[in-house]
Design brief:
Radius of gyration: 19 Å
Number of domains: 2
Strand content: over 45%
Protein name: Copper chaperone PCu(A)C
Helix content: under 10%
CATH architecture of the largest domain: Sandwich
CATH superfamily of the largest domain: PCu(A)C copper chaperone
InterPro entries: LpqE-like (IPR007410), Lxx211020-like (IPR058248), PCuAC_sf (IPR036182)
Structural class: mainly beta
Organism: Actinacidiphila acididurans
Keywords: Signal
Distance between the termini: 53 Å
Largest sheet: 11 strands, mixed
Shape: globular
Mean pLDDT: 85
Bound molecules: copper (II) ion
Length: about 160
């Protein structure tokens, strides 16, 4: 492909080509990250300060994507948290590996809904909008149920 496209490469195409090369330099380009979001829920919070939210993001593409931010009408703002042992800290992004998944859950990475607009009831459904980098679609909105505070998926 070298030479033939000289002068015809638009800015966006040049950036995409450079990103693919960075993943290994093979001439067979890795497929772009393609995401789906499933299996979400929110354990019912005891207060209105904050609530954790869990989803699973599956990447069927050959390049990594990043969850960079989220929002919800239930929260004033949403942060991304990672857990190490019993402590959690805020991070700027969570990685969705190629041909893999990002599983948010109790004791693991999670979304933190901060300053809730109200205390949600069990069975209420809450929209979550997730924003991704290096992926299609770049924005995914899912509706997740509020579960009992002690709920654990799959027992
Ligand atoms: Cu947290």
């Amino acid at each position: 492909m070298a030479g033939a496209v000289t002068g015809a490469v638009a800015g966006g195409a040049a950036v995409a080509a450079a990103a693919v090369v960075a993943f290994g330099g093979s001439s067979s380009a890795a497929s772009a990250a393609h995401l789906s979001v499933t299996a979400g829920y929110i354990p019912r919070p005891l207060l209105t300060d904050e609530a954790a939210a869990y989803v699973t993001v599956t990447n069927s593409g050959g390049t990594a994507a990043e969850l960079t931010s989220a929002s919800s009408p239930l929260a004033t703002y949403v942060t991304l948290h990672t857990s190490t042992g019993t402590t959690m800290r805020q991070v700027t992004a969570l990685t969705v590996p190629p041909h893999g998944r990002l599983s948010l859950g109790l004791g693991a990475d999670h979304l933190m809904l901060e300053r809730l607009t109200h205390k949600p009831a069990v069975g209420e459904t809450v929209p979550l909008t997730l924003h991704f980098a290096h992926a299609a679609p770049a924005t995914v909105t899912v509706t997740v149920p509020v579960r009992p505070t002690t709920y654990q998926p799959g027992g």
